[in-house]
Write a structure and sequence with these properties.
- With 172 residues, this protein is an alpha/beta fold.
- It has 4 helices and 5 strands, in the order H-H-E-H-E-E-E-E-H.
- It has a 5-stranded mixed beta sheet with strand order 2-1-3-4-5.
- Helix 3 crosses helix 4.
């Protein structure tokens, strides 16, 4: 029995070390685990892209000038400006920046009946600045009736798009 008393503390120490070793390796019974917390990941920088051109981001700058006092011609000028404003291809420009200038001159088709229709001429010009003479790009002569003003404005915007395709490099 004496021998057991001498060996008992050594055996307890060995059993304790074995249990501690097993607990460290996960073999022993494990206590309830806390939910895993997300690990912060470093943000990745976005891949560099070619910056969009100013014309693509905000549209081609246009300035519409109207000369005339006939009602149908004034409606045509207004519809033309509204159509450019709604378009994603164009934007209305200020006079200080490079732009395509559309000079619209209208006269009543019949002087006795100014509300029936108008004759118009539209001249497209490229304006670099107020100090530089404008460059002639194209013209159009036509007639517009009071009931087709909006459709004629859309045709003129489409024609402006065609001219932009030909002379768009001037705005770069």
């Amino acid at each position: 029995m004496m021998a057991l008393r001498k060996i008992a503390p050594v055996l307890l120490l060995i059993i304790g070390l074995i249990l501690v070793g097993w607990a460290g390796t996960g073999i022993a019974q494990q206590p309830e685990q806390a939910p895993e917390q997300p690990v912060a990941q470093p943000l990745q920088a976005p891949e560099p892209q070619e910056p969009p051109r100013a014309e693509d981001a905000q549209g081609i700058p246009v300035l519409v000038e109207h000369l005339g006092t006939d009602p149908v011609g004034m409606r045509l000028a207004l519809h033309l400006k509204e159509t450019f404003q709604k378009s994603s291809l164009f934007r209305l420009a200020g006079p200080e920046e490079k732009h395509f200038n559309l000079r619209l001159v209208t006269r009543p088709q019949f002087t006795e009946r100014p509300f029936l229709g108008s004759a118009y001429v539209l001249v497209w010009r490229y304006v670099e600045s107020r100090e530089v003479l404008a460059y002639f790009l194209g013209e159009r002569l036509g007639f517009v009736d009071a009931d087709v003003v909006a459709q004629e404005a859309e045709v003129l915007v489409a024609e402006t798009d065609r001219i932009k395709g030909r002379y768009g490099y001037l705005l770069e």
